[in-house]
Amino acid sequence: MTGHENVYSTTKSRGVDPLRRLALTGVALAALTTAAFAQQPSPAPAPAPRAPARAQAPVAPPAPTLQQPPAAASSLPNGASSINETYGDWTVDCRITDGQKRCMMTQAQGNNQTGQRVYAIELLPTRDGKTEGTILMPFGLNLDAGAVLKLDDKDLGKGLRFSTCVPQGCLLPVSFPTVATDAMRKSAKLMVASLNLSSGEAVTFNVSLNGVGSALDRVTQLAK
């Protein structure tokens, strides 16, 4: 009898059919597989997303120390503290006070009989190319009527308004763009006209433009 026959006969003698035994073995394997999966630990939960890092505030630069060079102070040519020069009928005045430089060009007219000042005008250049300033007018004018400007009898801009009055007179702010100052260089006089408060008659003041071009160039140079 062969070996296969011995296995068969042994199995048969124990009363278990081979096919039945295979079926039972499959059931047992399935049970073991299920138990094995049941014993495996459940996957750990995914870690929560980390909050984005907060941006750090920029660190302020250290305060300047005594070793750092100071900012360049305002200065005038040859170390002067003030300069006063004449160009035609205009005076260029530039001086340093408390470390600040202030430059302007001025003109004034007085009454020979009374010795009182009739009017005064001061102009200074600005960084945007304009020339701004103030005209000091005498009392007794119609402030509500304002004033008008003319260059050699030609209108210059629109009417102006008085801003306020001081013990010396009433102030008329002016602002000249580059096109106006270019025209002033070629003109002989700037006429300022207003109205007398009592009579309503026109009151005219003539500002000489002799030397205005040179004064403008010089005050612009010194103001830098």
Structural features, described:
The chain has a domain at 77-223: Immunoglobulin-like, CATH 2.60.40. It is α+β, with helices and mostly antiparallel strands and 224 residues long. It is built from 4 helices and 11 strands, in the order H-H-E-E-E-E-E-E-E-E-E-H-E-E-H. The longest helix is centred in the first third of the chain and has 22 residues, at 18-39. It has a 7-stranded antiparallel sheet with strand order 1-2-3-4-5-9-8. A 4-stranded antiparallel sheet has the order 7-6-10-11, with no helix packed on it. A hairpin with a 2-residue loop joins strand 1 (82-87) and strand 2.
CATH homology-level superfamily of the domain at 77-223: Invasion associated locus B (IalB) protein
> What name does the CATH topology of the domain at 77-223 carry?
Immunoglobulin-like
Shape: globular
Strand order of the largest sheet: 1-2-3-4-5-9-8
Structural class: alpha+beta
Order of helices and strands: HHEEEEEEEEEHEEH
Percentage of residues in helical conformation: 10-25%
Count the DSSP helices: 4
Mean pLDDT: 76
Name some characteristics of this structure.
224 residues; 7-stranded antiparallel β-sheet; disordered N terminus; Immunoglobulin-like; globular; 11 strands; alpha+beta; 4-stranded antiparallel β-sheet; 4 helices
Short account of what is shown:
By secondary structure, this protein is α+β, with helices and mostly antiparallel strands. It is 24% helix and 32% strand.
